[in-house]
Design goal:
There is one protein chain. The chain has a single domain, classed as Divalent-metal-dependent TIM barrel enzymes (TIM Barrel). With 298 residues, the chain is of the alpha/beta class. Helix 4 runs parallel beside helix 6 and helix 6 packs across helix 7. The protein is built from 13 helices and eleven strands. The strands form four sheets. The chain has a four-stranded parallel beta sheet with strand order 4-5-6-7. Strands 1-11-8 form a three-stranded parallel beta sheet. It is globular, with a radius of gyration of 18 Å.
Length: 298
Amino acid sequence: MRSSGPRLAVNPIAYWLAGGVPDRTTRTLGPAFAELADIGYTAVKADVPDDMQADDYLPWLASFGLEPALSLYSGSFADHSTHARQAEAARVFAARQAALGQRFCMISTIEPPGSPRMERPAVGAAFDAARLEVVVDGVARCCAAMREEGVTAALHPHVGGWIETEREIRAVLDAVDPDLLAFGPDTGHMSWAGMDVPAVLRDYAERIVGVHLKDTFAAGIARAKAEGLGYHEATRPGRIWAEPGLGHVDLAACIAAFPDGFTGDYMIEVDVPSLPLRECHQLAYDWALATLPVGTRR
């Protein structure tokens, strides 16, 4: 059983993205979970593998000594005509998360390759106030649908989506009722987008229910901007994403901004490691035990 305090978790994204083509099957995740459990992790982002029935997921996780942790629903909300379909998809996703024992689920948006945000990431490319209003409405409808399943959505800003900049994050959080939409920040994406991450976290601290702890290399961010690199080129190994403590994000200040009594998931996430996979996640685990509140340890 997990403790009543905050929990250390990990997103295995670096494992299922390692080959360049996403592979979210047990063939990839099984060895990943064995390695992560051996390092010491006890919780992973809750996502049923593509080749597994949902009913088999929890026993499979338990066989590694792992529990499910805060997951993420990603959609596209810039088109009013798709909102009903997105809300239904969000409801179905939330129902599965509820069945896994989750009370919260992050919600995010990222656009496809070729879109302005993917071609010119982290600068709020092609900003349009009217579009943002549509996005806010789509997010709110998904939040309401997820709440019907007993799950509260938490805004997860992401470079490459229409909720990318500080102005956009604040607009969504200010527009949607806090009872419907919590906050699930990502320190890396917020850093890349150029904001004072701890300051934003402090302003919405009471809404934070979980976080993706990610670091960034300042030199990689500067290079991406100077050379006009697209999202995937900018995030090649060793460029922007850094293991916690190796980059320039003030993660200690971020953690200090969290509310008193925080009991959510501190989730380690290094999308594209700058080190070999095991070394990356071992370093992150050691950093977490030395840095995060004691309650993250079971």
